[in-house]
Amino acid sequence: MNTIEEQLWNYIDGNCTAVEKAEIDAKLVIDPQYQAIYEDLLAVNNELQQLDFEEPSLSFTRNVMEKVNQELRPVALKTKIDNRIIYTIAGFFIASILGIFAYAIVISDINFSFEMPKINFDTNKMINPVTIQLFVFIDVALALVYLDSYLRKGKIKAQKKGE
Questions:
Q1: What b/e sequence results for 128-161 when a residue is b if at least 16 CB atoms lie within 10 Å of its CB, and e otherwise?
Q2: Contact call for residues 12 and 4 (beta carbons, < 8 A)
Q3: Is residue 122, in this structure, part of any structural domain at all?
Q4: How many other C-beta atoms are found inside a 10 Å radius of the C-beta of residue 110?
Q5: 23 is in which domain, residue-wise?
Q6: Could you tell me if residue 144 is inside a domain?
Q7: Does residue 157 form part of some domain?
Q8: How confident is the model over 4-57, as pLDDT tens digits?
Q9: I need a labelling partner for 80 at 20 to 30 A (CA). Which of 4, 62, 93, 104 fits?
Q10: pLDDT at 106 over 80
């Protein structure tokens, strides 16, 4: 519910409903404290009505903008990254990688005998109708994706020309 002051301001300004106006009229007759607050607010309202507000001159905005333009503009902050920090971080990672590589060489068993693995290419097990269908399906999907991107580029170029 509104406070007493809000109700009375609405009453003074004429912004209340007929029911609220009747309630406030009844309270003003019955309650002396309510009557005192009403008289104070009425006096404030009368004072506000009598005030003569000054209007700024027509060139006020122009004068303010000229003053703003005369002020020094702040310099944009430019952060400079120290190259020594970059080199230090890069050096740390390079040293770490070299250390891990050296450790791997030290603990490894050096044996240079190398034999080619023997792979049995049994094409009957590897190439069957399912693998061929899968291969064709993937190729068609990739072709459609490429075609879509190609057509979109052409559409974008056509829209730019039509601007």
A1: eeeeeeeeeeeeeeeeeeeeeeeeeeeeeeeeee
A2: no
A3: no
A4: 5
A5: 4-53
A6: no
A7: no
A8: 888 888 888 888 888 888 888 888 888 888 888 888 888 888 888 887 777 777
A9: 93
A10: yes
Kindly tell me the sign of the dihedral angle through the C-alpha atoms of 37, 39, 43, 48: positive
Average pLDDT over residues 116-142: 83
pTM, entire model: 0.34
Residue holding tokens 């730019």?
160
Give just the sign of the alpha carbon dihedral 14, 19, 22, 23.
negative
Alpha carbons within 13 angstroms on the beta-carbon side of residue 115 total 3
Residue 17 counted as domain residue: yes
* pLDDT greater than 50 at residue 1: no
Which pair of tokens denotes residue 74?
A: 């702040």
Cβ(10)–Cβ(2) below 8 Å: yes
Angle between helices 18-30 and 4-13 (to 10 degrees): 120
Q: Is the pLDDT of residue 77 over 70?
A: no
DSSP designation for 51: -
DSSP H helices in 71-113: 83-107
Which pLDDT band holds residue 148 (cuts at 50, 70, 90)?
very high
Question: Contact, 19 vs 7, CB < 8 A?
Answer: no
Distance CA 44, CA 46 (A): 5
